[in-house]
Specification:
single chain; 161 residues; Ferredoxin Thioredoxin Reductase; 3-stranded antiparallel beta sheet
């Protein structure tokens, strides 16, 4: 089934606003990005960032599945995410965003999905959603994040400092 860019745009906009985020107010620009997401969804089966080269393997691309692992840091520092799909509240005026540097580590082994830590104690692990930060303590992460609806594989083991 081929995804629809306008439908995905509306879904992303609703999810963003519900979660306290904002899509870029330039609707034609944003729709072009969403069309790239739809292309990647049709091609790979997941919403790989349209502004990065996807590997085509879900595990290798976990950190760049939209919303990517780098979104919040980019929003905090630059007011927009790498591709410009998400913007901070002060960027809602429509002023063009400055180009921002790529945060994604070049070496795959340095990417979040390949970093693991032992977290089990008494058979229970603490899991963190890499999209929204939700924490839960259970033997396995939930199949969907109850906050942002990210899939199970977007969770990582979490260790308290």
């Amino acid at each position: 089934m081929k995804a629809n860019a306008r439908g995905l745009y509306e879904e992303l906009k609703t999810e963003a606003e519900t979660g306290g985020y904002h899509l870029n107010p330039d609707e034609s620009f944003t729709l072009e990005l969403v069309e790239g997401l739809v292309t990647n969804l049709d091609r790979y089966g997941y919403l790989a960032c349209p502004c990065r080269l996807a590997d085509g393997e879900r595990l290798a691309d976990l950190d760049i599945i939209c919303p990517c692992d780098y979104r919040d840091a980019d929003l905090a520092e630059y007011g927009t995410c790498y591709c410009g799909l998400y913007v901070s509240g002060d960027k809602l005026t429509g002023e063009p965003a400055e180009p921002i540097p790529e945060r994604r580590p070049e070496a795959p082994t340095e990417r979040p999905q390949y970093k693991t830590r032992a977290v089990e104690k008494n058979g229970v692990g603490v899991w963190r959603c890499r999209v929204c930060g939700y924490l839960c303590a259970r033997p396995e992460p939930p199949s969907k994040c109850p906050i942002c609806k990210a899939d199970k594989d977007r969770f990582e083991p979490f260790e308290f400092a």
